Structure formats: structure tokens, C-alpha cells
Amino acid sequence: MISVLVAGIIAAYLAISPQLEFRQKVLALALTFSACFLLVYFSYEALIFREINNIYAGLEKFKRKEFKQMSTKFLFRPDPLKRIKDEIYLLAERNQKEIEELKRLQAMRREFLADVSHELKTPIFAAQGFIHTLLDGAMDDERVRDKFLQKAAKSLDGLDTLVQDLITISQLEKGVVQMHKSHFDLNELAQEVFEQLENKANSRNISLHLLNAPEDLFEVLADRGRIKQVLINLIDNAIKYGRENGNIWLSFQDGKKKTLVTVRDDGPGIPKEHLNRIFERFYRIDKSRTRDGGGGGSGLGLAISKHIVEAHKSTIAVFSEVGQGTTLRFKLPKTKL
Ligand code: ADP
TM segments (predicted)? Predict the structure, then answer.
């Protein structure tokens, strides 16, 4: 159209020129039309078609996830086209990332489901076994009956703890749990926790030490109930996995804005290769401990503790060396005076 228009204007101009013959006028018209046509065609080709092809080629690479090889070159840098291209690439990259995240979550969900079924199976099978043995005749012997009933009850207690922990962790991971923050004294909370765990510690002849003077005040702003749960988890682990006749030390240290909470034991410690993994759900160093009812927990204690500490905008850290004991630390915001 542009070529016809330009050729038409030139033809009209030449028509009124008396110097040129008719044949020359037709030739001039044809030449103008061809030149215009070629010029327009090749500029469009360079400016638009090539860029669109470029975008298509880029999308093809997206499909094959070859992000790095995508060309960002433009011949004439036409702004609207560049913007379209950038927009498409951005969208495609975002979609690709979302797809990968969804795939990762799906794999995690599958793994979680497999872990949960496995963990549930252990206490259910144990309780089922004891009850069936009783029904099959073991009930007649009073001594065996009591022993088996106690074992079945222990398995069901373990199942109850596991289900409670599963509910807690799923709520924490969903982010639906609100931290009910209040001002309280950590020293007072520590004494409460020690009282609760005293018998358990005594059963392994482990001494619990509070390193700060009982009258010292360590006021923090946090969810008291949840922090109590964290302290119980950490000290309970130190009792379970520490050495018999050992020691556990709990201490608080005031910083500028935060108070450092430290739980240390003189147990066998944690090998380096496990240190990064102990906060994962169901991760246990000694996999056999819960299977044989050897006093291990649900495998969720540290994962729950990590979530609670993170909900207080802090992190939990572990330091340990084999034979040197284990230290776990986290910080809590101090009450502003
Ligand atoms: P569990 O319910 O098995 O205690 P946790 O999440 O509380 O699960 O702990 C994960 C694992 O970390 C434990 O199974 C144990 O192997 C290891 N662990 C935790 N605390 C200690 C500690 N103080 N000393 C040695 N090992 C520990």
C-alpha cells in the first residue's frame, strides 16, 4: 500500500512534467514502486518479523529450559517490541519457577505422606500385636497380661504424642498459628521446665543446672507457652540422648536487644554429617531408637522448635562434636524497659 501510494504521488508529479515520454514515465513509476516495495518489505522484515521470530525462538528455548542461551539482541531496538519480548520472557520465567516450586512441594508432600504412614504404622502394629497375643490366650497368665497391656498402652501413648506433634507441625507450617506474645521472665519459666523434667532426668541420673542466679530477671517478649515447649524439647532431647550420670546446663545471657538462650549437655554429641539435618521432620540419627521403643520421640521435636523460634524472628543453631556434648542456642527479643 505504501509503495503504491508513493509510486502514485511520483507518477502524478511526472504526468505534469512535459520533458518525459510516456514510456519513461511508466518505467519511473515501476522503478519507484519496486524500490519502495523492497525498502518497506525489508524494513518490516528486519524490524518486526525478525523480532517476532526471535521471540518465538526464545519461547522454544524456554520450553527446553535453556534460559542462558536466550538472545536479548535487537537490530533496531524498537521499544514496543522489546517491551513485549521482555514481558513474555519475564512471564515465562516466572511460570517456569512456579512450576518447579509446585513440583518440589508435590515431592515434599509425597515424602511427608510416606514418612507419616511409616511413623504411624510402628506404634499401631506394636499395640495390635500385643492385643492379639493377649486375645490368643496370653491373657490367662496374669503376669504376661499386665506386661503386654502396659506395652500396648505405651505404644498408644507414643501414637498420641506423634499425632499431637503432627497437628502442631502442620499448623505451624501452614502459618495459621498465632504467637501470643507477652512479657515474662525466662528464669521463672526455666524453673517450671526443670520441675516438669526432674523425674525423667533422675531416671538417667542426669543433673539439671540453671547457670543464672534464680533471682536474676530475664524479661522477654515472646509466646510463653510455645517457648516452654521449645525448652522442654531441647532439655528432653539432652536427657534422652545425653549420657547417663551426665549434666545439662541451661543459661540466659542478655544482649543489647535480645537474650541468648543456651541448652548444653555433655552427652555423646552429634556427628558432623547429621548436624544440618536434625531439624528436618522425622530425621533421627539412630533410626532404630523409636522402632524398638527405645525412648526416642516422634522425630518432630526439633522441627517444631525451629518453627516456633523462627516465628519469633530468630534462628536456632546447633554446635556439637562427637564426645564433646551438644549445644543448642536461640535468641528472644528482650522486653524494652
Ligand atoms: P526425636 O523426637 O527423635 O527426639 P528431634 O527432632 O527432637 O526428634 O531430634 C532429632 C534427632 O536429633 C534425634 O533423633 C537425635 O538423634 C538428635 N539429637 C537431638 N538432640 C540431641 C542431643 N542433645 N544430643 C545428641 N543427639 C541429639
Answer: 26-44
